[in-house]
Amino acid sequence: MKKQTRTAQKPAARESLAQRVRRLEDLEQIKQLKALYCQYCDGGWDRPTHDYDAIAALFTEDAVTEGTAGRTEGRENIRRLYRSYQVTPFAFHRVTNPIIKLAGNRATGNWHVLVALTRPDGQAVWIAGIYDEQYVRTRAGWRIKTLKFTPAFITSYEQGWGKQRIAPVQPRRASTPAAPG
Asked: Rounded to whole angstroms, how far apart are CA atoms 48 and 81?
């Protein structure tokens, strides 16, 4: 019987310990970036919602967001957008299922999100969907370059997603954010 031998990997194909550690640190930093985004959006029980200065600091200067409020370009416009969301009396984001792909100083992320939110008119809604994001490493750490939200459902608390998958999305006005923020 012939003894089977392992085929050794070429050194160039193997990650060094330092490369593995950096990859793991990058993944963790991107997860923390997303957690901070949610933390700064949430509130209504112990703080106001949408800390727009803290949220804007998570984005690059030329960042782009796309979602139910439309497309917003540039950090200062993103700051203004999230400032308009402060009329939202309650928001609570839960993000899960991260799929993060690293490519040097760039990365992509895909997250599921479920948001319990109270609109300015007092209506409680459920919002669920997918965040597709691009990140870049900056001198200040990882930052969001693009954030795209695609809703799976936006429904009133009373109706639920079984009866009403997409509730009418309120157009963005200075006093009424669409969702989610």
From this structure: 15
pLDDT score for 13: 65
117-129 residue pLDDT tens = 999 999 999 999 9
Residue 171 inside a domain? The answer is no
Residues paired with residue 151 on neighbouring β-strands, in sequence order: 129
Which of 137, 131, 132 minimizes the C-alpha distance to 60?
Answer: 137
Residue 172: CB atoms within 10 A of its CB come to: 17
Positive or negative CA dihedral for 17, 97, 40, 43?
A: negative
Q: Could you tell me the CATH number of the domain that includes residue 26?
A: 3.10.450.50
- N-term to C-term CA, the chain: 65
User: DSSP secondary-structure letter at 109?
Assistant: E
Q: Is residue 98 part of a domain?
A: yes
Provide the number of structural domains found in the chain.
Answer: 1
